[in-house]
Specification:
This protein is of the alpha/beta class and 219 residues long. Helix content is 50%, strand content 15%. A five-stranded parallel sheet has the order 2-3-1-4-8, with helices on both faces. Strands 6-5-7 form a three-stranded antiparallel sheet. Bound molecules: BIS(adenosine)-5'-pentaphosphate (AP5).
C-alpha cells in the first residue's frame, strides 16, 4: 500500500503511521524525522532546515522533496510506504507524483485526520520523544514504562523544540494555510478518506483498518 497521512501537528499522524507500519509491514517515512536527524547530525541540509523548523515554518520545497525522494530510492521502497508529514504543499505533491511515475506506483490513499486545535495543543504540550531513537511518548496518553526514559533504548526523553506553545501556534497557522489546496489536489483524484483524529489512538486505528479493507489495500 502507498499511503499519505494528512492532518495538523498533533493529529496523531506519526502514531498511526507507526501502528499501520507494524501491523501491515509497510515502510514508514516521516520527513519531520528525516529533518530532525539531519539537524542532529549537523549536515548541510540540517543546517539549512534548522531555522525554519525552530520558527514553525515549512522547510523550502526543494530541500524536502530531495530528502524524501533520496529516502524512497535509498531504501528501494517505491512500492509500499506510508508518508507522514509529506507532502505539505501542492508543489511537493506534484513533485512526488512525478517521481512515483518512474516507479509506476501512484499514491493509493490519503488519510486525513481532522483534529481540533484544542486536542492538538493538548497532545503536543505533553509529547516527549527519545533523544536517541526518536520514539514518541506522551506524559498522559502514552507513558513510558520508566518516567523520562525510552522503552526501546533507555535514553532520555526530551520535549521537541517546536512543541513549545508559541511555535505550536505558528505551526497550526502554517498548516491551515496549506491544507485546503492539498486536499483539493487529492480529492480530484478521489483518494481522500477523512477520519476523526480527536478519538483515542486505538479507536482511530480501527477506523483506519476499516478504510484499508474497504479500499482493498490489505493484502
Ligand atoms: P513533523 O515532524 O512532520 O511535525 P507535524 O506534522 O507538525 O506533526 P507532529 O509530529 O507534530 O504530529 P503528529 O500528527 O505526527 O502527531 P503524533 O503522532 O506525534 O514536522 C516538523 C517540522 O519539520 C515542520 O514544522 C517543518 O518545519 C518541517 N517539515 C516536516 N515535513 C515537512 C515538509 N513536507 N515540508 C516542509 N517542512 C517540513 O502525536 C502527538 C502526541 O499525541 C504524541 O505524544 C502521541 O503520543 C499523542 N497522540 C497521538 N495520537 C493520539 C490519540 N489519538 N489520542 C491521544 N494521544 C495521541
Amino acid at each position: 500500500m502507498r499511503l499519505i497521512l494528512l492532518g495538523p501537528p498533533g493529529a496523531g499522524k506519526g502514531t498511526q503511521a507507526e501502528i499501520i507500519s507494524e501491523n501491515f509491514k509497510v515502510f514508514h517515512v516521516s520527513t519531520g524525522q528525516l529533518l530532525r536527524e539531519a539537524v542532529r547530525k549537523s549536515t548541510k541540509i540540517g543546517k539549512e532546515a534548522e531555522n525554519y523548523m525552530k520558527r514553525g515554518e515549512l522547510v523550502p520545497d526543494e530541500i524536502v522533496i530531495n530528502i524524501l525522494i533520496s529516502k524512497l530510492k535509498e531504501d528501494n521502497i517505491g512500492q509500499n510506504f506510508i508518508l507522514d508529514g509529506f507532502p505539505r504543499t501542492e508543489n511537493q505533491a506534484i513533485g512526488l507524483d512525478k517521481e512515483l511515475k518512474s516507479f509506476g506506483k501512484p499514491i493509493e490513499l490519503v488519510l486525513y485526520f481532522n483534529t481540533s486545535d484544542e486536542v492538538a495543543i493538548q497532545r503536543l504540550s505533553g509529547r516527549r520523544i527519545c533523544s536517541k531513537c526518536g520514539a514518541n511518548y506522551h506524559i498522559v496518553n502514552r507513558k513510558p514504562r520508566i518516567e523520562g526514559k525510552c522503552d526501546k533504548c533507555n535514553s532520555d526523553l526530551i520535549q521537541r523544540d517546536d512543541d513549545k506553545p508559541e511555535v505550536v501556534k505558528q505551526r497550526l497557522k502554517v498548516y491551515k494555510k496549506q491544507i485546503e489546496p492539498l486536499l483539493d489536489y487529492y480529492n480530484n483524484k478521489n483518494i481522500v478518506e477523512e477520519l476523526d483524529g480527536n478519538k483515542k489512538a486505538s479507536k482511530v486505528f480501527l477506523e483506519v483498518e476499516k478504510i484499508l479493507e474497504k479500499r482493498n489495500l490489505v493484502r
